[in-house]
């Protein structure tokens, strides 16, 4: 046929049948052949369309497989629990995190009631409530007890969100969550980091204040040294002169009293004997006052070095005695301190910083026992396993149990407004930690507070 590719036309073999009649038109064969050619062409078009549809279908199947693999990889990578349920609360899909959490595989979980995952009836009822409403609403941070791998209750925080179809019809719920322990650990770590940062900031501020105060105190102590030296030197000289003057007066009166009644009367009127008798105690009092002032100046010099982080061996017993002496001098006489310490408690670090710690502890004990009829602080120590433990026990009202965990927090104080900054124990805690030790607080069974200062033991000082 003209215009037809002979390669694409398959000629049908001639049909066998009765011979055509003599009067049948000669073009009948040509009409039948044209019909078959058209049929074959239509079949080729359909076959070509089928091939195209097959290619598109394979592409869509490949894309669908990629999407499925992507979703599965996301579900497997999730650290949070994921549960997909229908609107009746039947589990349809879970992720690996849930399977690891409760120790069951996917075949055991699919088709199971969502509420059956929980350990107690209260949690199960709360889980049923997620699906009981006609139009369930989203639930945020709902803490329930799920049955763990070993059957023990495991607290989890769950979020529940409605799952809708393309037409907006509710088809189920999507539940996500994670064990509360992880959240609490993360919160605790964040809170601890914040507290450490706040404590460090306050310690820097306090260190700058102490450095400025130290420079001022060092200057004052240096200026006080000279007049104290003058006073003590003059008292010593006057003591020698007084002895000579006493000898001279006794000699004068021994020679002249019999011949001069007026001189004897003058001696009695001026109370010379009483003056000479009082002279020695007066000089002793002046000497004691000068020496005490000199001790205060020495203490000021040590206090001026508090901000220096010097690692040197020192005797903790001496530092305790010095801190107690400073506090008791400025406090009420009714406050008593009983000390039962060995002669030597050798440690290494900054004696000035440790004095600041002990002064804070003694001051707190004095304030805590101010309302007691017989305020008392008992200081003792023990040595074991290379550690010195210093115990400071008072007979005050003790520490409120709710305050024990916050006692060393910056700015925390139980004192009235204006009587405490809340930094003393916080700074002391940091100083002790830098010395490789620990500072603990607890209540005594018989009443009162007990502070335990633990420091590494140093070899005995020479």
Topology:
Layout: H1 28-77, E1 81-86, E2 91-94, H2 96-102, H3 106-109, H4 121-132, E3 139-147, E4 153-164, E5 170-179, H5 180-256, H6 261-269, H7 272-303, E6 312-315, H8 316-330, E7 336-340, E8 346-349, H9 351-368, E9 376-384, E10 387-394, H10 401-404, H11 424-434, E11 438-443, E12 449-456
Parallel strand pairs: 7-9
Antiparallel strand pairs: 1-2, 1-5, 3-4, 4-5, 6-8, 9-10, 10-12, 11-12
Largest sheet: 5 strands, antiparallel
Strand content: 15-25%
Global morphology: rod-shaped
Which second-level CATH architecture of the domain at 308-462 applies?
2-Layer Sandwich
Low-confidence stretches: 1-18, 20-24
| Overall SS class | alpha+beta
Task: Write up what this structure looks like.
A hairpin with a 5-residue loop joins β3 and β4. α5 packs antiparallel against α7, α8 packs across α9 and α9 packs antiparallel against α11. This protein is α+β, with helices and mostly antiparallel strands. The radius of gyration is 49 Å and the shape is rod-shaped. Among the domains are: 110 residues, 2-Layer Sandwich (Beta-Lactamase), CATH 3.30.450.20; 155 residues, 2-Layer Sandwich (Heat Shock Protein 90).
